[in-house]
Design goal:
The structure is a single chain. Helices cover 52% and strands 6% of the residues. It has 324 residues and is an alpha+beta fold. The chain folds into two domains: 3-168, no CATH class; 174-316. A four-stranded mixed β-sheet has the order 5-2-1-6. It has a two-stranded antiparallel ribbon with strand order 3-4. β3 (96-97) and β4 form a beta hairpin. α7 packs antiparallel against α8 (205-226), α7 packs antiparallel against α11 (265-288) and α8 packs antiparallel against α10.
Length: 324
């Protein structure tokens, strides 16, 4: 059983019971699980249970504070008194469930389950209290943070407290998507197609391996962008990549070989052929998606072609690497 399944079982057992105590608040809260941690991505296993693994669910709600939401309190915000009552009721739910224990409530914030103030949650994940972003903010926010705002599952949101926000944040606007992709392609070209063999010829095998790592990181990012998926925190990047269908699974095997193999002369030559093969497959994906007008094997030219497709002039004219 992974973390999402455990949370759902706990919600099924006690969620309705909890909400029944507060019928007037049912349209002011959303119940589910989302945020940081492998369990919110469905990536957790037995190893993951050594920390931050517990039965429970989140009660997402805007809570009235001195800092307003969007120029005024959200229409469905909880009062401090209502929030305190919900916290107390959640704290009284069973501490043990299916062989697992709930963590003790943190005295000063930091709880991963129980009542979660959506204003604080969105500030942490998007930098804004309501998840409304400008194009420049979309560019700056790490995708792993956006993924934290949209991962997991919401099982009850009768009042539309969180679901519309998650839908709005579910993926990048098209121009931002293109800008980020253009940057990844350019870095792939520089690290893999250009600098890797130059480092080998200079006898800089350490730098050559760094070039492979840079190429691989940006190839993984590009693959996620091509599938219109947020790239997670680096330790889950390969796991996520293998979940992107046949293209992602094959890419993961090749990239793992690139970053784990040595750089002697014979191996370096083989690695360069792999780099060019990966570049060709990425270009095929770009052309299939009609994201590029270039017609060559040079990823740099495709990077600038993708950037040319950014409709917003101000965004298009930013440095091509401004999104990465």
């Amino acid at each position: 059983m992974n973390g999402i399944q455990l949370a759902k079982s706990y919600y099924d057992a006690y969620g309705a019971e909890l909400l029944a105590q507060f019928p007037e608040l049912q349209n002011k809260v959303a119940l589910g699980i989302a945020g940081s941690g492998s369990e919110c991505l469905g990536y957790d296993d037995e190893v993951s249970q050594d920390h931050d693994f517990e039965p429970g669910f989140c009660i997402f709600a805007f809570v009235e504070d001195e800092a307003p939401v969007g120029g005024g309190f959200a229409s469905n915000a909880l009062t401090r008194k209502e929030a305190f009552a919900l916290e107390r009721a959640y704290a009284k739910l069973p501490k043990e469930f299916q062989g697992f224990e709930r963590a003790k409530m943190a005295p000063v914030g930091g709880n991963r389950r129980g009542l979660v103030d959506l204003r604080e949650f969105l500030l942490q994940t998007t930098g804004t209290p309501d998840g409304v972003l400008t194009p420049e903010q979309w560019l700056r926010i790490p995708e792993e943070s956006l993924l934290e705002a949209t991962n997991g599952a919401i099982w009850q949101d009768a009042g539309g407290v969180f679901a519309p926000i998650r839908e709005r944040l579910s993926y990048l606007p098209e121009d931002v998507h293109r800008k980020k992709l253009a940057g990844c392609l350019l870095l792939m070209a520089q690290a893999g197609q250009y600098n890797y063999l130059r480092c080998i010829r200079h006898g800089e095998t350490g730098a050559a391996q760094l070039a492979c790592l840079n190429f691989a990181e940006n190839a993984i990012h590009a693959a996620h962008l091509l599938e219109k998926r947020y790239m997670p925190y680096y330790k889950w990047a390969f796991r996520s990549l293998r979940g992107l269908g046949d293209f992602g699974a094959e890419l993961a095997d090749d990239l793992e070989g690139l970053i784990t193999a040595g750089n002697d002369a014979e191996t370096a030559e083989s690695k360069y052929f792999v780099i060019e093969d990966i570049a060709a497959r990425v270009i095929d994906q770009l052309m299939d998606a009609q994201l590029t007008q270039a017609n060559c094997g040079d990823l740099e030219k495709h990077a600038y072609s993708v950037n040319d497709g950014v409709a917003d002039g101000a965004l298009r004219n930013l440095h091509i690497l401004s999104g990465v």
